Amino acid sequence: MSLGGPQSSAFEESQFRQIFENNDVLVVAAAGNGGNTRCSYPACYEAVMSVAAIDSNRRLASFSQRNPDVEISAPGVSILSVNSGGGYRRLSGTSMSTPHVSGVAALVWSHHPARSAREVRDALNESAEDLGSPGRDSSFGYGLVKADAALEKLSGQAPIAPPITNAPVPSPVQAPADAPAPSPVQAPVSCDSPPVAAPTVGIDKCQDSDQRFAVNNRARNCAWVRRRSERRCTGSIIETCPVTCNVSCMAYNSVEDFTLPNGRNRNCAWVARNPTRRCRNFVVQANCPLICEDV
Predict the structure, then answer these.
(1) Total number of domains in the chain
(2) For the residues of 122-187, what is the DSSP string, one character each?
(3) pTM of the prediction?
(4) Residue 128 CB coordination number (10 Å)
(5) What is the pLDDT of residue 12?
(6) Of 106, 195, 211, 222, which has the maximum CB count within 10 A?
(7) In a domain, 295, yes or no
């Protein structure tokens, strides 16, 4: 579930408990993107798995909520995803990490359909790669979800690869000689697009002059970096992502938190009340760390 809010409800909590315990449904929800210790619901209900976000270095994402209800972690920083307007883009948030856990749960359950939601949940937690403090903690929960380890946990043995047979390999089907070659689908280039080579300065991250980010809570763009790339890329540029407010509110639920360039916390409902005015001067985005040198 890619949604959340600060208010809990006894009735809502009882419904989640019922579908977990009586209907054998495993609910997985985003822990929240406020970067604080507050609870986001339904993730903080006991019957729901709360998912934190980590980056490619197994570090907790700066925006990920930290509280005792965080149960498990998954990648959630600069995740390649589909774009509502077509093509692909990189997004960050616990809403990106939650599908990883949901997918692992579905995969494991498909191999063991007779197991209960509780057993699948326990398998994911007990087989997770421990991160942070030993054991469960408020940042990573039980740790990084591991599909192979969870499957092994329920199977009692490591997954067995299918045997290699001597079946004939079918000949490839070739298009007619005059058939046009399909155009490759490429992700739009932006400040947080992964580099093809290993450039020495962060300027190569900034191909789109309209790409906005925040430096010390001040709105900046790629043109600002290019003007003094060496000096402005020697420190840490804290970028905010995903990108524009008309897109981020599609990727995040109306109650999902993000931070304005001035440091104030808002949500997409706040934008929707007056999008023309509130999206005019800056780009509303969820928090995502980016080190300018790491390109």
Answers:
(1) 2
(2) HHHHHTSBP-SSSSSBTTTBT-B--HHHHHHHHHSSPPPPPPP--PPPPPPP---TTSPPPPPP-P
(3) 0.56
(4) 25
(5) 93
(6) 211
(7) no
